[in-house]
Design goal:
Layout lengths: L3 H23 L3 E2 L8 E5 L2 H9 L5 E5 L2 E4 L2 E3 L9 E5 L3 E4 L7 E6 L4 E4 L2 E5 L1 E6 L5 E3 L2 E5 L4 E4 L6 E3 L2 E3 L12 E3 L15 E3 L2 E2 L8 E3 L7 E3 L2 E3 L12 E3 L5 E3 L2 E3 L9 E3 L11 E3 L2 E3 L7 E3 L8 E2 L4 E2 L62 E2 L3 H28 L1
Parallel strand pairs: 2-3, 3-6, 4-7, 5-8, 6-9, 7-10, 8-11, 9-12, 10-13, 11-14, 12-15, 13-16, 14-17, 15-18, 16-19, 17-20, 18-21, 19-22, 20-23, 21-24, 22-25, 23-26, 24-27, 25-28, 26-29, 27-30, 28-31
Antiparallel strand pairs: 1-32
Helix pairs in contact: 1-3
Length: 413
Amino acid sequence: MSIALPFMIVIIAIILTRHSLTIQADATNTVACSDITAQYRAPVSTTAELISAIQHAQPGDLIVLADGLYEAPFTITLSGTAELPITICGSEKAILTGADVSRKYVISLNHVSYWHMIGITLTLGKKGIMLDGTHHCILDRLIVYNIGQEAVHFRTNSTNNTISNSWIYRTGRTDSQYGEGIYIGSAKSNLVGDASNFNRVLNNRIGPDVTAECIDVKEYTSNGILAGNRFSGSGLTGGVTDSFVDVKGNNYTIENNYGSSDSSGLTDAFQTHEVVPGWGWYNTFNGNRLDDSAPGYIVNPQLSGKQTNIVTCTNEGNGATKGITHVTCRQNGTVFSAALAYPNRVNPGIASSNVTDDYAIPSDPSIYPGTSSNPRPTTVSVTSLASDRSDRYSMLVIILLAITTVVAQSNVL
């Protein structure tokens, strides 16, 4: 009996070791969120599993999508916390897809907070990502394309959200006039007083074939940041949608964005409009660049609010027929600026000398994620639930081997 016990423990240890190695071999799927700390990791590979994970998500959960197709629509109604956000992540080959571009949203976040969505692809819906009454969410390194109307919409008093390092293209497949890349707020005809404030659009690639504005900022919204984005005007339809960015809100910082027109639909690169009295005011345009041609201005503040908008002389481009702007540009000032967070980010035509000490460094630079000029990151391996189990099995093997050694020595004695 004294010999049989150690022998049996060794056999169990070998079996567990083989099981551990098998699980580790299955945990090699690469996704874009390897460094995320999670309370619980939920690997999913089917639509049913993803729906279940979303419906039962708890603060701190990390939902890891295997490569494959997931049948939309999806609706998120549970919240994370500031300390424990809920995260969905996967590679660009993890694709949330609707049936066609004429109906439903691919995914909607409905009055929730603290969700992170990282690395995945969304396609084939009337709208791509809809945020209603949603706060403190991060959309990062996504691909959103082949959408009937707008790709991403911050709506119904959604605040303090960020979309960054993402690629949006082929919008407006069914309604070209509503094919915005990113839409902040609501038109007064849809919802009066939509205070979707403090949202950030950072380091994204928007276009080609975005049929309306790359970024449309609506009245009643304020205090957002649009910075480091790259726009393509190819596919812009023109008419009422004749600029990369149209700002109708107040106190926005629009800077270090780069656009190439590639389209007869472009009139001005950046515009403001006062569609509601007192809105479309107090915005700052700094360090933006236009390549190629446009018959208007680089920055065109329109109507009475033009006297309150700040256009610095660091906006530039060779193709705007009417020049930088029709208001007096400022050489320096004490306005808020994220310029130092984006030295030559995605607009290499802007010289570093144009980023001056006259502008304040943001108090919290961490709100501007991303450092590479490539909007798509290199995918890296993530530790999945399976490999977590593997670690536990490995530890159990070590403990059992130690017990075997102690028992064997006691039998000898």
